[in-house]
Every structure is written in C-alpha cells, then in structure tokens.
Prior knowledge:
Helix content: 10-25%
Oligomer: single chain
Bound molecules: zinc ion
CATH superfamily: Ribonuclease Z/Hydroxyacylglutathione hydrolase-like
Amino acid sequence: MKVRVLGCSGAIARDCRTTSFLIDGRILIDAGTGAGDLTLDEMQAIDHVLLTHSHLDHIAALPLMLDAVSSRRLQPVQVHALPETIAALQAHVFNNIIWPDFSRIPSSAAPFVRYSAVAVGQLLRIAGVAIEVLPAEHTVPAVGYAVQGEAGWWVYSGDTGRNPAFWRRVNQIPMAVLVIETAFSNRESALAERALHLAPHILAQELAQLNPARPCPIYITHTKPSETALIMEEIRRFDACTPHGFDAPHDIRWLQAGDVLSI
Ligand SMILES: [Zn+2]
Ligand SMILES: [Zn+2]
C-alpha cells in the first residue's frame, strides 16, 4: 500500500497544503488543499473520500474537486464520514448557496456524489482495503482512521486532543506507521487545549500510553507553518529525555507533502 502525502500542514502558504492523503491512488483521506495538486486524471481515479471531520482545512478541496471531475466520471464519488460531518457538509457547503448540491446533480438517481455514514469502531472494506474508524476528540465530531497495508496498519489520528480511547485501540493493532497531529507549540498549549489539538508536551503524555513493545515510526502532521521548526525542536527535546519505557527515543519525523509511505 502506498500513502501519498498531498498535504499535511496546519495552514496554507506557498508549499504548505492542508491535510489530504491518497491511498493507492483510489482512496482520499481528507480533502484539504493538498488534493488540489492532483492532475485531473488522478482526481478522476478517486472513487472514495473519507473525511475525519467538517473543518475547512480537511474539506476545502472537496467541492472544487467534485466539480472538476464529476462530468468525466461514470460513478458517483462516495464520501464516507460521520453523520454529523455529512450533515454539516450538506447544510453549510453543498447547500446551493456556497456550492451546488452534488448529491442531487445531475439527478438524485444518478448523482455526482453519494454519502455513506461511518461510526467509530466500524471496520470498513473500501475498494478492497480494510479501514477502521478510530475515535478522535475535537471541537466538532471527528474520527481518525487506520488503513491496513501489507506490513501493518497506517494509523492517522485526525485532529484530536487528549484521546485515551485512541491509545486503547491502537495498542491492539499491529501498527506500521503512526501519523499524529501536533498543531501547536508549547507556548500555545492553552490554545491547543481549548481547540482540542496537541502541543508537544501533551503529545509526550499521549505517547506515554503507546505500547512500548510495538515501536513504529511516528510522523508529525498538522503543524502550523510558522511554528513547525519550534514544534519539532520541542518534540525532539522531550523525546530525548523521556522515552517513557522505551529503550530508545521514539522514531519521530516531520511529515511533508510529497512524502510517500509504503506500508
Ligand atoms: Zn479540526
Ligand atoms: Zn485541521
């Protein structure tokens, strides 16, 4: 399985694109601005979009992407998300004011997009790929996803604050790669707590719940462009001195758009 990182930044700027991951060219996980870099042919090949939540940085490219390729596709794009996320999209984006309701265009019987509700804990099989819906703790209903590859599971936290249920579950999964958000630096940790995001010192407490018997590479995502260097420095500092029962520091790396993870 190949996970192509289209965007993994907490905001936009030149060379900074918001969250979007492409799995084997067919499944998009989140549709942030990174998806806008795909060619028309690449966009057309996406049959399924899984959303973690309704925030704009995770859905911004979805309306434009659907508009770009729908007339070239023979089947609707399936959008999988929590019922609350689907309701938010319908009420606030595809409401015929901000953007057309593609679930009724060109007709309700044969629309450009179909919605499919997911629930935390559900094991989906999408285009032959096993995907589990993981819990997330955010300011709106949110999830993470675990996607099964040949070497184990690619686990993505989504946007989340402290999340004990997430660790309980992922410790039971043979995880090959963990992608976890750290949106803020420690100096903004009060804001991180309020916005239900992670900062490095909260990440340290979260990673303490990871099963030391199963170390795997950890990729940091969703950093604010202006704070990325500071966030990674703060993470390196805690990781060097508090391995939390691990024999060595975690293998923590910064995720970048353009990275391809083979799992
Ligand atoms: Zn969010
Ligand atoms: Zn976000």
